[in-house]
Specification:
The chain is mostly helical and 93 residues long. It is built from 4 helices and no strands.
Length: 93
C-alpha cells in the first residue's frame, strides 16, 4: 500500500481529526459539533456497512426484550420491539 492509501484507510476508520484536511462541510460543522471529523467518519462507516451496524443491535434489542418479557418486566406488545429495550423498574411480579 502507498502512503496515501494508508492515510485514507486511517481517516475512514478513525476519523479525520486533522483540521488541515477537513472539508468545507466539516469546517462549518465544527462550530456546532465537538468532533466533526469523528462524527462524519461514523456516518460514513454506517452508510458503507449497514448490515454490520444495524442488525446486531436490533437482534440484541429483540433478545433483551424477550428475556425481560419472560420475566414479566414489559408488556406483550413490547416483546418484539427492536428499536428500544423496555424494562419497568420496581414492578412487583
Amino acid at each position: 500500500m502507498r502512503d496515501s492509501e494508508i492515510a485514507q484507510a486511517v481517516n475512514e476508520q478513525l476519523g479525520n481529526y486533522n483540521k488541515a484536511n477537513w472539508t468545507k462541510t466539516q469546517a462549518q460543522l465544527s462550530k456546532f459539533m465537538l468532533f466533526p471529523g469523528w462524527d462524519l467518519s461514523s456516518v460514513n462507516w454506517v452508510v458503507r456497512h449497514p448490515i454490520k451496524t444495524s442488525v446486531p443491535p436490533a437482534l440484541f434489542g429483540v433478545a433483551a426484550n424477550r428475556a425481560i418479557n419472560s420475566l414479566g418486566g414489559n408488556r406483550e406488545s413490547e416483546k418484539d420491539d427492536f428499536s428500544a429495550i423496555h424494562a419497568v423498574i420496581g414492578r412487583s411480579i
